[in-house]
Amino acid sequence: MKVYITHFLLNDTDFIIASNASDVIYLANDDTMEYLNRHIERFYSEAVKVTGYEADQLNAHFIEDLRLYFKGELKQFNWPLNLAGTDFQKKIWSSLCNIPYGKAVTYSEIASLSGNKQAVRAVGGAVGANPVMIVVPCHRVIGKNGELTGFSGGLDMKRTLLAIENIKYIK
């Protein structure tokens, strides 16, 4: 299996995207090459990493979708995803994908939807482990009191994403 890795700049932010021949497996911002390498080693240990022109060509349409999202012109991603994680994490990520554009939910609400309203901390861990930010919209999860909570891409990025979607929160 090949993993196609592209670094790109979007709105003055460095991003990295990784895909296999058909599915996106990773999307993050900032200095996440170390995290990407760990993700590939853990879940795709036999993968050959491909960068440069071949990877850039394969990932170009995903990057264009992100540009449209940041302009407010794309509200739903229809990307093929290959999300590698535990069964619990995958269940939570699936729940995140059901949060509509422009709406925020709390970790407690996600825990209730998962069938275990006591699992708020575990939900937080799963949300934080999301390998495909923005597309699996973990930025739409806020604290029970309406305040912003952690975000793997940083709180400034979370504020940006919430502003794009016109989601209100307590600062």
Keywords:
171 residues; two-stranded parallel ribbon; alpha/beta; 39% helix; globular; four-stranded mixed beta sheet
Detailed description of the structure:
- It is built from 6 helices and 6 strands, in the order βββαβααβααβα.
- With 171 residues, the chain is α/β, with parallel strands linked by helices.
- The chain has a 4-stranded mixed β-sheet with strand order 3-2-1-4, with helices on both faces. Strands 5-6 form a two-stranded parallel ribbon.
- It starts with a strand and ends in a 7-residue tail after the last helix.
- The mean pLDDT is 93.
Mean pLDDT: 93
- How far is the first residue's CA from the last residue's CA? 44 Å
Order of strands across the main sheet: 3-2-1-4
Structure summary, number of beta strands:
6
Give the oligomer, counting copies of the same chain as homo and different chains as hetero: single chain
β-strand percent reads: 15-25%
Which descriptor suits the 3D outline?
globular
Our count of helices gives 6
Largest sheet: 4 strands, mixed
- SSE run: EEEHEHHEHHEH
Structural class: alpha/beta
Rounded to the nearest angstrom, the radius of gyration is 16 Å
Low-confidence blocks of residues: none
Percent range of helical residues: 25-40%
